[in-house]
């Protein structure tokens, strides 16, 4: 008996070994690294930049994070599927001008947003349908679809208008309030946009962890043939992934419409690469099958803090961009490395 | 050369069937809509516009062939940096000789591409992450060096940008670039790049040095990117730190329209050149329609539709071919 007990005891590694095993997990390492960077940035920011940790500054960081966070949902889902959605910035811009165009034509603002979400959902489903044939093509399909979407949107709003490519109309007050820095929700001193992002985040994490489609997304990325053999509806998941991505990008466009107080077709441009950066810094592998939206939220937080810090120490926009680029490589090098081919033979 | 060998050679160029088909269609439309293209000055102008795009697409092709989903997103900002550097560092300081400018353009681009190649190869990061960082760093750097478009180019370079006939130095550069590519493509090193792109494990197991090979692909990309930057500087007649952001997307469009697979191993100069010309012709043909203020949006819409359309045709082609050869093996996606 005692020998059996001893074996059991031996088989269970002690706490130190378990911690080491945990740290060896790429996902855990990314959380640790990104978390450490987050805390480090916050401490440095509070020391270096005056008012960095003031309530106003944190509220504005949360608001900016919510735009990026909503736009990054689709990029996360597509990355888990093993693809990239480069149409996000174009869909943001298209929905930004089209929503205001609909409103200027007398469509009710809520109805206009619903129409935008439905249209972009159909658009995304089409992108996903074309992408599903070859996953490495998602980059170009989404790029092409994005080009087409923004081009078409700008042509639509230009017809019969003297302002080419954009719309001048009044943005509804409730939308401006939703994304305003000074508004409050349920008595809390937080902009409603932040709460909306939080709600979306919870739903997306639940979707990825607990639903059949969410689990299927990971299974499909691991091995598409094997996944289809166990009846994962591969085609439907591709379409759903890109449809969700487009819908949330369109929603980000609507939020930015409220924040900007006017339509601007290029408003999505910064999100072309920041969404990818948020996904990657969070620790979701672009190879697919690993990661989740919780990690991306962390990535968004790191990016937002970094941006605020760089602005705070007075760097110009180009310099901020350069620093951001310099930081991505070492961060990803800590947890996003691919295995050497010699380990795969 | 026997028939089988000829057919094998043709088969290898089959990937370019879609872009060549598109080229024919676009040329026919152009002949009706804007015959000026086929005049001496029209062709010279087209060449000056196409040349940087062709060279940039070749640069991207080298990295794409090396595999791992390698799309060199930094290409546009790298060209920006070359143009800004030429104007701000060389010409402003009285250095205007062709040898110095060409050496600078190629040198700076190769140096940067080597850094990217070493990072991808030794850290084993996904190329798109590294080139995304490169994109951000370079576009920031170019804007820091020169805040806005401006500066002068020496006379010889300016004349490259607005040639009076097709037989200009630009044509010579393109011909040399294509001949050099063809010769390079016959070397063992290039074959190793192809092998590594198609299957990294096989390449490793065959004793190919992955680090050297990947860096070599980036060196080739650097040479072509540097020349592309130089020709773009000639075209716009100055330094421009901002065009790179948008240019990257145009070059990627040309690469993909050229039928070059970003999953590695496949593609070549033919597809890259034709893809780049296709992209130019799309905007040329659309410019002949009187869209007025909507012209740029129409061009963007057309790029998108053609890109997705070309891909759909390519997929259909591949499906047909697969049915014909009837492979029994189940492709396992790793």
Structural notes for this entry:
The complex is a heterodimer of chains A (345) and B (334). By secondary structure, chain A is mainly α. Chain A has 15 helices and no strands. In chain A, helix 5 (88-104) crosses helix 12 and helix 13 (271-282) crosses helix 14. In chain B, helix 5 (98-123) runs antiparallel to helix 6, helix 9 packs across helix 11 and helix 12 packs across helix 13. Chain B starts with a helix and ends in a 9-residue tail after the last helix. Chain B is mostly helical. Chains A and B meet through helix 7, helix 11, helix 13 and helix 15 of A and helix 6, helix 10, helix 12 and helix 14 of B.
Question: How far apart, in Å, are the first and last alpha carbons of chain B?
Answer: 39 Å
Quaternary form: heterodimer
Question: Terminal Cα separation of chain A, in Å?
Answer: 43 Å
Largest sheet of chain A: none
Number of strands of chain A: 0
Write the H/E string of chain B, N to C. HHHHHHHHHHHHHH
Give helix % range of chain B: over 70%
Low-confidence stretches of chain B: 327-334
